[in-house]
Amino acid sequence: MKKHKLSILALAVTFAPGITYAQVNDAATEAQQKPVERIAVTGSRVLRAEAESAAPIQVLTAEDIELSGVTSMEMLLQKMSVSAGFGGSQGNAYWVGGGYGTTQVNLRGLGVNRTLVLLNGRRVVNGGTGANAAVDLNTIPVNIIERVEVLKDGASAIYGADAVAGVVNIITRKNFEGFMVDGRFASTDKSDGEETSFNVMLGTTSDRGRLTSSLSYRTTEAINMGDRADCALAEVTPGELSCVGSASTPGGRAVITSGPETGNQINFNQVVGGPAKGYEAYNPDVHNVDNFPMLNAMSPVTTLGFSSFGDYRLSEETYVFAEVLYNSRKSNQIATPGTLRNIDYAADHPDNPVGEDIRILQRRLEEGGARLFSQNVNTFRVVTGFDGLYDDNWAWSVSYNFGRTTGNDMADNVVNLERLGKAIDPDVCGVGIPCADLLGYGNISQEALDYILFKNTSYGGNEQRSFTANVAGDLFQTRNGAIPVAFGVEHRKERGWNEPDSSIVAGVMNTNRKEPLRGQYTVSEAYVETSIPLLADKTFVDYLAVDFAYRYSDYDTFGSAGNYKAGLHWTINDNLKLRATKSTAFRVPNIPELFGGMDEGNLRTSDPCSGWDQSGADPTIAANCQADGLPAGYTQTGSTVLTRTGGNPDLGPEDADTFTAGLVWNVQFIEGLQVTIDYFDIKIENAIRGVSGSTKLAACYGSENMSHPFCSDATYTRDPLTGAVNFLSAQPDNVATETVSGVDASVFYNTQLFGLNARFNVNMTYLDEYTLAAFAGADPIRYAGKITGGNGSFTRLRSDASATFSSDQWQLHYGVRMIGSANDINADPGDIGAHVDHVFYHNVQGSWFVDKNWTVSAGVNNLLDKKAPFIQSWTDANTDTMTYDLMGRQLYIKARYQF
Fold first, then answer.
1. What is the reported pLDDT for 15?
2. Residue 320 CB partners (closer than 8 Å, separation 6+)
3. Residue ranges of the domains in the chain?
4. How far, in Å, CA of 652 to CA of 560, rounded?
5. Which member of 162, 308, 451, 716 has the greatest number of CB atoms within 10 A?
6. 2-222+299-335+373-415+455-594+652-691+732-784: which CATH architecture?
């Protein structure tokens, strides 16, 4: 039994990270016969005799990471073929909600909050600047990683909520011994986007314990969007792209609201040296301006991190372990100068040269310069606990996990609307308050700018506390093998908060009004898992087993829920294995979804009952409007309705059903060749979505006898006197359904070529279906094969392939990543940018092993300098910045010293 015990202690890395150390340096132990290896793999907690799982898993080793040339976790994970949709990165940080500069992973395109990220099998606190819903990958430096295991299957029965699309389990180095230092410098061939990283690692082991510590630093410089795209493009003339600018002009675009020229648009002087009070008929070709020079294609980020992982043997069968992780991130972005909208000037206003009433539609405050955004975020995580063996067979582990993220989110050069109102009011300004002349570029004084422009700072954070206890071992032996079991409990508390600047809360800043957000929830869980061998050593059945797992969760916010997982793995022979899983998964509403402040504002809304009695009106809508008591001749008098947004404390969990089936084929007639193919099907019901007020009203009155759930008083109310809608709710609800299916395939081939070690890898994902029904009865939106313009790309085919050749002295790696062809979901067929062909990115890296201590590497990312394709409904830079590379060709060199 001693051999069996040592094997569990040495190899159960995922079940209990602290029990990986054993007396592996003991000469007597090494001389013994090798024991049967028993390990736990990601997606399962039972100890197995082999690293096989019924669920599909992709493993990225430290060598894979080194060869890829990436320096951050987001670069590594977002380039996988299984990633899709939108996840924050340096190239699209401007679009990330809940804290710019945050980076995430999005498996299957189902959303970053449906992918569970673990560190050594345990949860990681959410990142960002407060009340966030996903882990910030910036907090985990790549130099500490031993491997990354990506479970491409639902796993709520194993790990709890959020594991709907899959699990990313990051395993850190723990057996490092010695000292290592490396430095890397990179730049594009346009001499911008410089990146510098520096890492130090120190490790030591003894016959009783281990300790591995690291220090990492990484900083990147900005790449201006104007240096990657000359101007904003659109198909103004059929078949031809032309530069189009923003209608928010620095002179000020206005409409005349009185007199014979009512309705005509004019634009005030925006030419340096032009007539200070000059104006002319607005012409978009003349007056519109380019925004790209005041945006970034790549935003700068600086991270500094420290980590330490260790364990110590207290007795022959008991260990104490600890993990410490600290990360500090500083990131910033730029944005165009603030735009002022819908400001009325009377004809007799001293700044108004028109002689008629006018309304400024849009005026870009160019004199104040670009708006500046920045974030300072600190993340701290510590895990400590005990683990060991009982009775030479049962592995146990207890641990406490504490994580906390705190951050400041700052915005500069933002207009204070309250002060602006005073500065443009001739009856108020002039005595102690500078007057601000907005009509014409350059007319506003620096004194007025200093008065109306502000810097605001918001503060927030996330906190996670959890206690876990796990036990794993064998129940008993059968003629087909042992029946292992794993069970345990977890108690977790999640807390998030965000305190906007007081000026934002008051609604006086030229930005979205926000209320303070504070919320928390607590969950207690228990799980059990087993694997039952059915047959062994039979014809066509080398080994056949079924897996079962069940997890019970009790939340203080919505009650209890249970999830199960069943799996089958069938080893036909040494060359062919079949596998399948069937499971339920769920995602609980995150803190901003539950506790987001109740903001109210007048939002543009269309009332379907306006003109319900007119000829040509929809008969169903007409009947419902009449039944609702609306009088004949009713017409909507305004374009906006008081609408409530924010969180919804009545939300419940999302529910998912997942099925996977596949095979692993070790091709017997080609030594070293392995092929894996897996089918996946995921359906999410009660998915949380925010639905606009106009859409809710249309669905209600378009349903027979107003039977739609959106017809409730909680959705809208009408004024009993006028019949006008006087309240709408656009809070998120459990109303959507999402269905995703497709195929993953991988090919691995290890061989010898020309006296060199050669390794070839290909990973591919084919997306057959991604269908979203935003609410019951809604027409389905089909994302598969589409670029969405705001949620990223859902191309049907994605792949990454690589070839690595190595000798004792050098190593060469070549990689190709492919993003498949797709159609713009918002464009008409035939339009320029409505269809995008396959895009290939080539990367190459060479390494020279100078001696046993020194390694020098150099490489090129995007070797062929592939430009981002034009997308008609682009987000920025005329393309989908969530999918395609804006950096261009990047060259880098790296040196490492190790002993």
1. 39
2. 18, 311, 312, 314, 384, 385, 386
3. 2-222+299-335+373-415+455-594+652-691+732-784, 599-645+694-729
4. 11
5. 162
6. Beta Barrel (2.40)
